[in-house]
Design goal:
Two copies of one chain form a homodimer. The longest helix of chain A has 18 residues. The first copy, chain A, has a single domain, classed as Nuclear Transport Factor 2, Chain: A, CATH 3.10.450.50. Chain A has 124 residues and is of the alpha+beta class. Chain A has a six-stranded mixed sheet, with helices on one face. Chain A contains two helices and six strands, in the order H-E-E-H-E-E-E-E. Chains A, B: This is Nuclear transport factor 2. Chains A, B: InterPro entries: NTF2 (IPR045875), NTF2-like_dom_sf (IPR032710), NTF2_dom (IPR002075), Nuclear_transport_factor_2_euk (IPR018222). Chains A, B: Its main location: cytoplasm. Chains A, B: Keywords: Cytoplasm, Nucleus, Protein transport, Transport.
Chain lengths: 124, 124
């Protein structure tokens, strides 16, 4: 797991590019036991997760990642914490967000086991 | 692991209360294999982690937690994502932060295996 930083960066770039261009294709990154907590709403399973992401009330979105930190987490996992900004189509103000992923390895690579997303509002 | 939300909330309350009142006592929450990534700086082991936290250039700090999300992560882990604000002594403006923890169970309870901290700057 020496290249966990590299794996995390490639994953993050792929994730947000896919989110911004073709949300349906995110299904390939989740499995039946994957979990998403999106603004406190808990969802389980690839199908339900992608359904949720596709139901979000905007057609266009652009993510920018500002920081990507990764740590090995157990024998087959990588914890990734992202901070960044997103701009929803039709809005002119970006919002800060944070997202934590727990990636787990499988034969063909990594999938998203845990996924927690939060908008971060200005502190004061 | 039905009460992972409860465990996460109790941990988070205890963590920041201890951080704000007696940083040295955080040592009890980490083990020799624990990892902290603090603003991109990686540190391993309870002793080095607490040394780092104690060396931060402020005497007083107050954390406020705005959101605490938790998910079970494997058989013996809990992923926790926190967002909140912190106010450093002598400053008058709070800063937003995000912190991801991977808690792992041991005989006596849970310890912090992964810990990633980031200040979140306003998006624009």
């Amino acid at each position: 797991m020496a290249d966990f930083n590299h794996i995390a960066k490639e994953f993050v770039q792929f994730y947000y590019k896919t989110f911004d261009e073709n949300r349906a294709a995110l299904a390939g990154l989740y499995r039946h036991n994957s979990m998403l907590t999106f603004e406190a709403q808990g969802i389980q399973g690839a199908e339900a997760i992608v359904e949720k992401l596709q139901s979000l009330p905007f057609q266009q979105i652009q993510h920018r990642t500002d920081t990507i930190d990764a740590q090995p987490s157990g024998e087959d996992g990588i914890l990734v914490l992202v901070t960044g900004a997103l701009l929803v189509g039709g809005e002119d103000k970006p919002m800060s967000f944070t997202q934590a992923f727990q990636l787990k390895s499988e034969a063909s690579g990594f999938f998203v086991f845990n996924d927690v997303f939060r908008i971060v509002y200005p502190a004061a």
